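The material for today's practical consists of a large collection of protein records. A record pairs a protein's sequence with a compact description of its fold. Instead of coordinates, the fold is spelled out as a row of discrete tokens. We will come back to this pairing of sequence and fold again and again. Here is such a record, shown just as it appears in the course material.
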Amino acid sequence: MDQNVELLETDRFDCVVVNVIKTMNYKGVTVEDTFSGGRVYFGKVPNDFDVQIGDVLYIGAKPLGEDRTRGSMEVYLYDENDKKLDWTLIY
């Protein structure tokens, strides 16, 4: 799996932060796609990143495997300045 893959800004879409969990080292952030209502949880957002419920962040997904309609995806979380905050796998 290549974590260095950069998705184009046009491949990203906005999501609303619906939950923030603060831990000692990271923040757990759940975002929701406003169109589909789908949610994704990111567990290692840097603790120094200021994020609140209702904020807009951006996600992009890279399908894994040949069939782009089924299977796993790498999903990346970005801030409004295109800084990568975290990534996760969806199966």
Observations:
- The CA atoms of residues 65 and 71 lie 7 Å apart.
- The chain has a mean pLDDT of 85.
- The chain has no helices and six strands.
